[in-house]
Amino acid sequence: MWSEIINHVHPIIVHFPIAIIVIALFYDLVLAWRNRVLSPKQGLWLWLVAVLGAWLAVATGPEDDARGNTSYLELHSNLANLTAWGVSLLAAWRLWLILRGNRPLAKIMLIGYLFLSIISCGLVLGTGYYGGKMVYTDGVGVQMNGTDVNPPKTRLHR
Q1: Domains contained in the chain, number
Q2: Residue 45: domain span
Q3: Cα(94)–Cα(142) distance, integer angstroms
Q4: Cα(152)–Cα(63) distance, rounded to whole angstroms?
Q5: Residue 153 located in a structural domain
Q6: In CATH, what number is assigned to the domain containing residue 103?
Q7: What's the sign of the alpha-carbon dihedral 57, 52, 22, 105?
Q8: Does residue 57 lie in a domain region?
Q9: Tens digit of each residue's pLDDT (9 = 90 or more) over 30-59
Q10: Mean pLDDT over the full length of the chain
Q11: Can you give the pLDDT at residue 157?
Q12: Is there a contact between 58 and 80 (Cβ–Cβ < 8 Å)?
């Protein structure tokens, strides 16, 4: 059982940052719309969990399973890295504001922050889309009766 979990840790983990980033974005949008400002402390924990989840998802990506089997790997990987850096920047921005005195985000700063949040959400959704294409279109990581549907192509080392 544990080996099954270890072998499938990436698909188990990836759903958390997707959900948390979407929830965090909508939480921030609702607060900003209602209050016309956004306190850096409100919802910070959502973005911190998103950062942790995004980096764990990046770290557990089974690139060797996909190498040579799909044309989506590089795009999926790049979007995942951009997502992790984007949410890290958002969390760092909020932490920096808290250290500077917890002044709320208003006007231009709020627009910039929400713009980056929307981009991060788009990036994570794009990452998930291309991850799904790798699995459902190309069969990467899929097994039937214990045999890979689309076995990894080994690289020749020179």
Answers
A1: 1
A2: 2-140
A3: 40
A4: 10
A5: no
A6: 1.20.120
A7: negative
A8: yes
A9: 999 999 888 888 999 999 999 999 999 999
A10: 88
A11: 45
A12: yes
Inter-residue contact 83 to 14 (CB < 8 Å): no
Residue for token pair 């929400």: 114
Q: What is the mean pLDDT of residues 89-117?
A: 89
**Cβ neighbours, 10 Å, residue 116:** 15
Tokens of 72: 């989506």
Residue 150 identity (one-letter amino acid): N
Q: Could you tell me if residue 51 is inside a domain?
A: yes
Q: pTM value? A: 0.87
Per residue in 83-95, pLDDT (tens digit) is 999 999 999 999 9
How many residues appear in the chain? 158
3-state helix/strand/coil string of the chain? CHHHHHHCHHHHHCHHHHHHHHHHHHHHHHHHHHHCEECCCCCHHHHHHHHHHHHHHHHHCCHHHHCCCCCCHHHHHHHHHHHHHHHHHHHHHHHHHHHCCCCCEEHHHHHHHHHHHHHHHHHHHHHHHHHHHHHHHCCCCCEECCEECCCCCCCCCC
Hey, what are 52's tokens? 């942790």
